[in-house]
Amino acid sequence: DPAMKVLPDLTPTTGSAGHGFTLSRGLIGFRDHTRGELLFDPAHLPFLWLRLAGPGEPLHFIVVEPGGLVPEYELEIFDEDAASLGLADPRDALVLNIVTLRERDPVEATVNLIGPIVVNRRTREGRQLVLANYARYSAHHLLVERTAAPLSITA
């Protein structure tokens, strides 16, 4: 009797109020989608959903705040980018990184560390940026580190 794998619908249908922001330039490849909203399901944290509204159906992306998930991730953004977002204090920046899940192997999930979405928490204006120190990071950083050798269990 083969079992059927049923994947839950991960897209939350509701979000908490007050998590909206503007991406006046959209995302790379999605310039016309300029209104963002963060949605979450407590069971799926630290993963959040970014819903982008624009012409047609909204787009959904899985995002994470990198703090605590990616050790030694230090964002350096260009002064012009900080100025354009009105960021005078690093604590005003909400940083979101887009996650790519592999349907066949969720353990192979990667996160884009080169092009984070940075939102000014005060003005709710955000942009997808390329880091000044981008050479230190990957657009396909594995969220789960591979171990050098498989675990062996002895009884």
Defining traits:
about 160 residues; mainly beta; disordered N terminus
Radius of gyration: 18 Å
What is the overall number of helices?
Answer: 1
Estimate what percentage of residues fall within beta strands: 25-35%
- Supply the helix-strand structural class: mainly beta
Helical content class: under 10%
Description:
It is a single chain. The chain has 155 residues and is mostly beta strands. 4% of the residues lie in helices and 25% in strands. It contains one helix and nine strands. Strands 1, 2, 3, 4, 5, 6, 7, 8 and 9 form a nine-stranded antiparallel sheet that branches. Strand 3 (48-53) and strand 4 (59-64) form a beta hairpin.
List the helices and strands and how they pair.
Elements: E1 20-22, E2 35-39, E3 48-53, E4 59-64, H1 79-84, E5 93-100, E6 110-111, E7 117-120, E8 126-128, E9 141-142
